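At this stage, I put together one protein's amino acid sequence and its backbone structure tokens, which the following lines show:
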Amino acid sequence: MATNSKKVAWITGGGTGIGLATAQRLAGQGWHVAVSGRREAELKAACDAIAAAGGTAEAVPLDVSDAAAVSKAAEGILARNGRIDALVCSAGTNVPNRYWKDLTPEAFAKVSAINLNGVAFCVGSVLPTMRAAGGGTIVVVSSWAGWRYLPFTGAAYGATKQGLSPLVESINDQEGGNGIRATHVCPGEVATPILRSRPVPPPEEDIARMLKPEDVGDAIAYAVNAPAHVCLNEIVIGPTWNRIYRGAEDLRRR
């Protein structure tokens, strides 16, 4: 087994959006990052950009809904680096058919497989390594919908994101004595590609006022780099001009 002198962070959903911004931030702070996602071209572009900025990264293609593939990916990262110091679960999805009148069992299962099962699979795959090392950090990227009910995100998305809160708390409850800490991150609207999957995408002028992926990446990096005795159990972050409070035509119930 190789041993990396740098701390190693594994970031799912690392090819775009919040995951990519987090990978770039951590790499800039001296971490080696392993970025996972389903689209290899995006992972390569992410790793190339990190390398061009002076950081180190490796691409680990992965569908987080596949438990066996998750275990294999974790084993590979560990074999190449000798350590996994942090896990950032940023892979997520939603579907256009969000209301019960349109929601199909297949759509609900797809969202659950990635947003909830995928997180559980990744967490389970790194806990033995972190226990053996005497510590580690797990960050789960949820949503404002994982903190408060939001009708426009849909039943499947809301249910899976709400489920992440007790998942994270259970890690802190059961693994804090092993030096392992977990953070539940609940961003408001962020200008990421997932916005395009909404039944009615928001207007460009509203997107310009939303959080940027880098804003959330900075918050995640703070949680990951905090002193070992500090656990940020939950981070709720939103834009100042917050459409969840203000309302918007595209968020109107249809």
Remarks:
- Strands lie at 8-12, 32-37, 56-61, 86-89, 136-141, 180-187, 234-237.
- The two ends are 55 Å apart (CA to CA).
